[in-house]
Design brief:
three-stranded antiparallel beta sheet; 19% helix; 7 strands; 2 helices; four-stranded antiparallel beta sheet; alpha+beta; single chain; Aldehyde Oxidoreductase, domain 3
């Protein structure tokens, strides 16, 4: 699963205010010809990204090229169950990435558009936000 090799601080603020608005960068296809775009704001965990990536890879039978455009940098902490309030912040539980509406999560190339669309559709089911499949405009 994706997680940072090294952190300056073990526990971070979650930047929950970053969940509003639309993406200013990372909102256009840069590498592949077909991509999966998030159309609602939220948080994607490393487990969800890995599940989506594995679904895509399995669907295309290891063909083509896949780019993962987001990385889960932010550690999310949780306190154990039935622990009283106080005594500090909980231990880091998992890593997540805050994504805004319009962010491209995955891109694909090197396979037919129909196969790529099916793979991205399967990946979209693993992501906890509304997604849509976008293609590069060819003239």
């Amino acid at each position: 699963m994706l997680e940072p090799k090294k952190l300056k601080h073990r526990k971070h603020h979650r930047r929950r205010g970053a969940f509003s608005g639309v993406a200013q960068r990372g909102h256009m296809l840069a590498f592949g010809s077909v991509g999966l775009k998030v159309i609602s704001n939220g948080e994607v965990t490393a487990r969800q990204l890995e599940a989506a990536r594995r679904a895509m890879t399995h669907s295309v039978q290891r063909g083509g090229k896949i780019w993962v455009r987001v990385f889960p940098h932010t550690p999310v902490t949780k306190k154990p169950a039935e622990v009283p309030m106080g005594s500090g912040k909980g231990a880091p539980e998992y890593f997540a990435a805050a994504v805004k509406a319009g962010t491209i999560l995955f891109e694909m190339d090197g396979i037919t558009e129909a196969v790529a669309r099916e793979a991205l559709r399967l990946a979209g089911h693993k992501i906890p936000m509304k997604t849509k499949i976008v293609t590069r405009i060819t003239r």
